[in-house]
Design brief:
The complex is a heterodimer of chains A (110) and B (121). Chain A has 110 residues and is an all-beta fold. Chain A has strands spanning 9-12, 18-23, 32-37, 44-47, 61-66, 69-74, 83-91, 98-101, 105-109. Chain A contains no helices and nine strands. The relative contact order of chain A is 0.34. Chain B has 121 residues and is mostly beta strands. Chain B contains no helices and eleven strands. Chain B has strands at 3-7, 10-12, 18-25, 34-39, 45-51, 60-62, 70-75, 80-85, 94-101, 108-111, 115-119. In chain B, strands 2, 4, 5, 6, 9, 10 and 11 form a seven-stranded mixed sheet that branches. In chain B, strands 1-3-8-7 form a four-stranded antiparallel sheet, with no helix packed on it. In chain B, a hairpin with a 6-residue loop joins strand 9 (94-101) and strand 10. Chain B starts with a strand and ends with a strand. The chains are: A mainly beta (110), B mainly beta (121). The A-B interface holds A 1, 31, 33, 35, 37, 42-45, 48-49, 54, 86, 88-90, 96-104 and B 35, 37, 44-47, 50, 61-64, 97, 102, 105-109, 111-114.
């Protein structure tokens, strides 16, 4: 089955840039979606289809995807960005197509 | 305003059944595919399954971990999606989220607040 690997944690100072990677075999050929989840809350879609933002999501959130790595970039990090972040793809390459979520990355704002 | 409200969670014994409901409002429910995603305590997100809109046949897909035990259905006249869970196992303990598929995308653009299912004797 398809596996998405994320770093367990990323730490960043306020105002700096956080980059969260999502590794998968030839992930560049798939559409990647990113979710932010704060403690006790439901996830929120922050980037879809590699690099598009839903309405209401700040421009500070951006995404890219190429080769074997997709990246979520948070610019000018704020305290309110502290959360868990998950990448996700739809894998139709196997006999059993399914949604796959990454392992999740906890972003800590120092 | 789009809203998804799950209900039906609770404590259930292993081997028993439970049905969750997801009541939608604020959009034309029948036009969208709907997914269920779960999250075990302290763990990451796990997709459970989804149901396509009637325009795409209303067919379903399931994660391997629940296939044959869980069934997703929908009642477009009531704007409700269901998750029927049979032969429950302790490892099915999780918060279950109802989600909407973004039109034209596999991204999940709206999520309910979740309902907790605890499988324990």
């Amino acid at each position: 089955s398809y596996v998405l690997t994320q770093p367990p944690s990323v730490s960043v100072a306020p105002g700096q840039t956080a980059r969260i990677t999502c590794g998968g075999n030839n992930i560049g050929s798939k559409s990647v979606h990113w979710y932010q989840q704060k403690p006790g809350q439901a996830p929120v879609l922050v980037v879809y289809d590699d690099s598009d933002r839903p309405s209401g999501i700040p421009e500070r959130f951006s995404g890219s995807n190429s080769g074997n790595t997709a990246t979520l970039t948070i610019s000018r990090v704020e305290a309110g960005d502290e959360a868990d972040y998950y990448c996700q793809v739809w894998d139709s390459s196997s006999d059993h197509p399914n949604y796959v979520f990454g392992t999740g990355t906890k972003v800590t704002v120092l | 305003e789009v809203q998804l409200v799950e209900s039906g969670g609770g404590l259930v014994q292993p081997g028993r059944s439970l049905r969750l409901s997801c009541t939608a409002s604020g959009f034309t429910f029948g036009d969208y595919a709907m997914s269920w995603v779960r999250q075990a305590p302290g763990k990451g997100l796990e997709w459970v399954g989804f149901i396509r809109s009637k325009a795409y046949g209303g067919t379903t897909e399931y994660a391997a971990s629940v296939k044959g035990r869980f069934t997703i259905s929908r009642d477009d006249s009531k704007s409700i999606a269901y998750l029927q869970m049979n032969s429950l196992k302790t490892e099915d303990t999780a918060v279950y989220y109802c989600t909407r598929h973004r039109s034209g995308s596999y991204g999940l653009d709206y999520w309910g607040q979740g309902t907790l299912v605890t499988v324990s004797s």
